[in-house]
Amino acid sequence: MSANLEAKKTAVEEIKNLITSSKSIVLVDYKGITVSDDTALRKTMRTNNVTYKVIKNTLFKKACEQLGMEGLDEALNGTTAFAFSGEDETMAPRLVKNAMKDYTSLSIKAGYYNGKAMTDKEVIALASIPGKEQLVAQLLYVLNAPVSGLARALKAIAEK
């Protein structure tokens, strides 16, 4: 086998590992972004445990075929970068959505979550869901509110 073919097979295996270890994937059109803006975006992604890579569409298609992923073929044309969320499903969509405000040349092409391809609108909807930590904090607040109210009422009765 040629070295080039072997390198492509290795790249496809790496992409498959990224896909299987990710909870959500966002396909981003990055045409027109400057190098300095791209560097800042990559740094933001890295600090939030999101893998952001530019991958050849043909290699990504091959990995999708091998994994049985469907529905992303239309989005795999032109310039495409991929944001892989490993821990928090909403992190990559949220970061890309926020980056679109700062870098107007960025746009969401599609996404993949829970075994299903998503449109750009669905990715934006996923981005609007609060993160796990914020949801846990809201739940704890809701659970703590009745007990706090009862404690205040008992204290008020005791003071009278």
Give a description of the structure.
This protein is an alpha+beta fold. It contains six helices and five strands, in the order αβαβαβαββαα. It has helices at residues 3-20, 35-47, 57-67, 91-102, 120-127, 132-159; strands at residues 24-29, 50-54, 81-85, 107-113, 116-118. A five-stranded antiparallel sheet has the order 2-3-1-4-5. The longest helix is centred in the last third of the chain and has 28 residues, at 132-159. It is elongated, with a radius of gyration of 21 Å. It starts with a helix and ends with a helix. The mean pLDDT is 87.
| Count, helices | 6
Could you estimate the helical fraction of the residues in percent?
55-70%
Write down the oligomeric state.
single chain
Q: For the terminal residues, how far apart are their CA atoms? A: 88 Å
Structural class: alpha+beta
Shape: elongated
H and E order: HEHEHEHEEHH
Sheet with the most strands: spatial strand order: 2-3-1-4-5
The largest sheet, given as strand count, sense and whether it forms a barrel, is: 5 strands, antiparallel
Strand content: 15-25%
Count of β-strands: 5
How confident overall, as mean pLDDT? 87
Put the structure in a nutshell.
With 160 residues, this protein is α+β, with helices and mostly antiparallel strands.
What keywords describe this structure?
single chain; 160 residues; alpha+beta; five-stranded antiparallel beta sheet; 6 helices; 16% strand
